[in-house]
Specification:
By secondary structure, the protein is α/β, with parallel strands linked by helices. The chain has twelve helices and eight strands. The protein has two domains: 196 residues, Rossmann fold; 98 residues, no CATH class. The chain has an eight-stranded mixed beta sheet with strand order 1-2-4-3-5-6-7-8, sandwiched between helices. Helix 2 links the parallel strand 5 and strand 6.
Length: 314
């Protein structure tokens, strides 16, 4: 079973001004002369962690990580204005150009898989390979599944009730009602909702209960951006056209792609990975048979590291 590569520290980190009031935190790790790979974190609104560097062989890869607009260490923290999918795609292209990278591997999980797919479909000539985990196709039904009584609450009803307890009574559209609260003037109510939103999502993320993951990931700073960004994007259909990702798969037919997905993923159900795999006949679908959504689960982590080793041979 593959384990994380040893802990590493960045050899460079900086803020990149991408305009419209946004500055992105960017770090580079590993071998500056290695194969370039960019890591796309989830959420939207999650931010990168130190373990995200450790999916890649630091002797072989030039590892680029960054926090997307308004989250993590990017500034302004929590900013939703001028923050949508097209802008995030353009940010990726600007980072590549700024770092003088011709082509790179793209690694993304959950919302990061969404962003990776839209980016690759927009700039296929710049992508060497795709490693995708926990596929989120960002259709309305995919957002509703987790939050709006779409099915996940039948598996985790007690956690879903805790989320609903900080919303107005009889709320049926948690995404839109939550978005209104999260951007409203009552900051205490917004923070209470952000905490419950984040805890609910992370509690649903693993096959077996993992409260240490919840406590680590659901701190106030991360909860604030995770809930607000997710509500902002989901309330706006993730700023994508109807079924945009599946409809544009021809653009990435020739890009080597490995899809890793937990069989029992409640956050992003497995059928999304299956549908994507069917649209990409050259892709490989690696199923983690004893895992949920989280990249830290043993089987999924093992497969992701196998995938990054495979991509070195391209």
């Amino acid at each position: 079973m593959n384990e994380f590569y040893p802990e590493i520290t960045p050899f460079n980190h900086f803020m990149l001004d991408v305009g419209e009031g946004h500055q992105l935190y960017i770090e580079q790790c590993g071998n500056p002369n290695g194969q370039p790979v960019v890591f796309l974190h989830g959420g939207p609104g999650g931010g990168c962690s130190e373990n995200d560097r450790r999916f890649f062989d630091p002797e072989q890869y030039h590892i680029i990580l960054f926090d997307q607009r308004g989250c993590g260490r990017s500034l302004p923290h929590g900013e939703l204005e001028n923050n949508d999918t097209d802008r995030l795609v353009n940010d990726l292209n600007n980072i590549r150009v700024y770092l003088n990278i011709n082509k790179w591997h793209v690694f993304g999980g959950s919302w990061g898989s969404t962003l990776a797919l839209v980016y690759a479909q927009t700039f296929p000539q710049d992508v060497l390979s795709l490693v995708l985990r926990g596929i989120f196709l960002a259709r309305p039904q995919d957002s509703h599944w987790l939050l709006n009584c779409g099915g996940a609450q039948r598996l985790f009803p007690e956690y879903h009730e805790q989320l609903c307890s900080v919303l107005p009574n009889n709320t049926t559209d948690i995404i839109r009602a939550g978005y209104k609260m999260l951007i409203g003037d009552d900051k205490d109510a917004a923070m209470a909702l952000a905490r419950q939103w984040s805890r609910y999502e992370f509690r649903c993320s693993t096959l077996l209960p993992n409260e240490s993951l919840v406590e680590t990931k659901a701190d106030d700073k991360t909860s604030w951006t995770l809930a607000r960004h997710e509500a902002h994007f989901m309330a706006n259909d993730c700023f994508l056209s109807d079924n945009q990702i599946l409809n544009n798969c021809e653009a990435i037919d020739d890009i080597p792609t490995i899809i890793v997905h937990g069989r029992y993923d409640v956050v992003c159900p497995f059928d999304q990975a299956w549908e994507l795999h069917k649209r990409l006949p050259k892709s490989e679908l690696w199923i983690s048979e004893a895992a949920g959504h989280a990249s830290s689960e043993s089987e999924t982590k093992d497969k992701l590291i196998q995938a990054t080793k495979r991509m070195l041979s391209l």
